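B., you asked whether I could sanity-check this one before it goes into the benchmark set. Here's the sequence:
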Amino acid sequence: MAETKELVAKVLDAYFQFRSNVPEFGGSKLLEDNKTTQDIIDDLAPMMTVSEEDVLNYLHDKGYQIKSMEDGSVKWQIWRIWDGAF
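And here's what the prediction gave me:
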């Protein structure tokens, strides 16, 4: 069980390696790339099965915030590097 949790953490760390919870990094502005929990689970599905609880805990622990979208839905507020300068 502990090995599985470690593997999930490694996969999430890799997924978020070029993403941030703030819109700037080292003076570079980042591209807003908001996602739902399910979007993230779907992105990771080819690699491994990750639970909602795993994603929620990871994002909460890393300080990601939730943003209300214009259509009334909510997504995680995520910025990602787009110029390769991370």
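One thing to flag: The beta strands are 19-20, 24-25, 28-29, 31-32, 65-68, 74-77, 79-80. Otherwise nothing jumped out at me.
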